Amino acid sequence: MSHQPSLYERDFHAWAEEQARLLRAGLIAEADLSHIAEQIEALGASERRELESRLKVLLQHLLQWRYQPAKRSSGWAGTIAEQRDQLDSLLRQSPSLRHLLPDYTGYAYPKARRAAALETGLAPDRFPERCPFAEAQVLDPDFLPD
């Protein structure tokens, strides 16, 4: 006997709509609770990945701004502003992520340092081994390093 694919496997969107309908109707016993829990966990992981990704790009451009002043551009400034705006939105929508900032800055910084070195052509050791920016500076829409 062959495995009949579930709605979850065949059409995720239709499955999600059906689960929302069941939950709103209070039909908890009919809902696919295991997959619902899995998807909720995946949403949290996705937000944490976004936090790290935004921090990496922001830190990379802050490093480039500081360590390659002759090449400063409106493009770099725009990227810095955009990443800060996106981080602000993410942290407003999910305030519990704020307490993760120190750890995720620690995860993102080595990647940002490596990316800045590649982008600028400067040796990686030209950039500090630890993030030189305080959390308040990273998030401050008016801060640009000298």
How would you summarize the topology of this molecule?
Layout (H helix, E strand, L loop, with lengths): L6 H4 L1 H13 L8 H35 L6 H20 L7 H20 L14 H5 L7
Query: From N to C, what is the helix and strand string?
Result: HHHHHH
Strand content range? under 5%
Q: Which whole number gives the mean pLDDT? A: 95
Q: Which segments are poorly predicted (pLDDT under 50) over 5 or more consecutive residues?
A: none
**Alpha carbon gap, first and last residue:** 69 Å
Overall strand count: 0
As a percent range, the share of helical residues equals 55-70%
- Radius of gyration from the alpha-carbon trace, in angstroms: 21 Å
Which structural class best describes the helix and strand composition?
mainly alpha
Count the DSSP helices: 6
Can you characterise this structure?
This protein is mainly α and 146 residues long. It has a domain of 93 residues. It is built from 6 helices and no strands. The longest helix is centred in the middle third of the chain and has 35 residues.
Q: In short, what is this structure?
A:
The protein has 146 residues and is an all-alpha fold. Helices cover 66% and strands 0% of the residues. The protein contains six helices and no strands.
